[in-house]
Each structure stands twice: as structure tokens, then as C-alpha cells.
Amino acid sequence: MKLWLASADVDIVARHLSSGVFAGVVTNPAVVAEAKRDRVEVFRDLVKIAPVAWYQLLAGTESEMLADAERMLAIDPVRMRIKVPSTRAGLAVIRRLSDQGLEIMATCVPTRPWMLFALAAGARRIAPYGSMLQKRGIASKAEEVVAMQEIIDRQGSTAEILTGLYDPTEVAYYAKHGIRSGFIWAKDVDAFLTQPLADEAASAFGGY
After folding, report:
1. Which domains are seen in the chain, by residue range?
2. What are 88-111's pLDDT values in tens digits?
């Protein structure tokens, strides 16, 4: 399972990437705002240390989102990746960017039908917002994410879901159900990567 770090704090990213388990960083507008810096400068620093950095466009008109994507991709065309809110205008942006050969992630995807619309528009990665359904008592986040993966598998699609991981036990659960990618918030990394049983087993070997 590919793991991503959710943070735009350059110092925190550098520290956690050294663990060796993260493929890169993933962000959203709220995460970038927490850095309290110009977003272009933030990503110029992130791509110096992260193999891949996902930037989420702000929801807007098609032309506004395309201009934002062009500006951010210019930072580093190889390491920068674009997440697009799956609004109606966003679906058009996904199509335009994917037609350029770019790997696009559709975000703010609340339901299975909406996932299929995003995939039809050319998205190759999906960031579900199943928590919206859970908060409304419609379906659990985990059930919706797994159901999305089942559709992808039955369609023979190569699309990849990126789901949020909030507890270490979720890693194995989602992996068992075919989810190949998940992100961990920076504040939770220590809890995920600290395993007393592993430390206990290692200490049992003693020293030289």
C-alpha cells in the first residue's frame, strides 16, 4: 500500500519523509493555509524534498482553475501533481488536464456515481469524501470507500483511490479490500510508526 503524508510544513515533511515509508506529500487548501506562506513558495520548497507533491486547486470557474493549475505545474512539471475538486466545472478541468497527459486526482468525491463521473472525465486517482455521507448517517466512510474500490475492480480500471487513514488498524483493513493508497496526517505519524511490539522484539536480541 502506498502511503502519503498530509502536510505542507516543510520542516515536518522533511522529518517524516526520512522514515522511508511515504511516497510524497498530499495537501488541500486548508493544509496549505496553515503554512501561512505564499503557496508557490511552499511548493517550491516541498518539491525539493518530496518525490511528488499534490496540490489542490481552489474551486472556481473552469478558466480560473486551469490558470491555477498552469501556475503550480510550472514550479516543477515532474514532481508537481494536481488535485481537482469534482464540481461540475472541476469535471471539465479534469478532462482538459488529463487530455494533456497529466495524472489528475479528483477530490471532494462523495458518492460512487460521482466517482464514475470523475473517472469518465479522465481522473486516474480518486480522493473520496465518504465522511460527508457518514456525518449525514447515510453510509459509513469505510463502506463507501470499499464499495468504490469494488466498482473500480469490476470495471477493470487502473484508477487508484486515495483514502484518509486515521488509525493504524485501518491500513491493513483498506489494503485487504484492495485500496492501494492512503494518506496520514502529520500529527498522526508518530502514532502510526511507533510499534512497541517491534521494539520489544528487537530489544530481546540484546547487544553486541
Report:
1. 2-203 (3.20.20.70)
2. 999 999 999 999 999 999 999 999
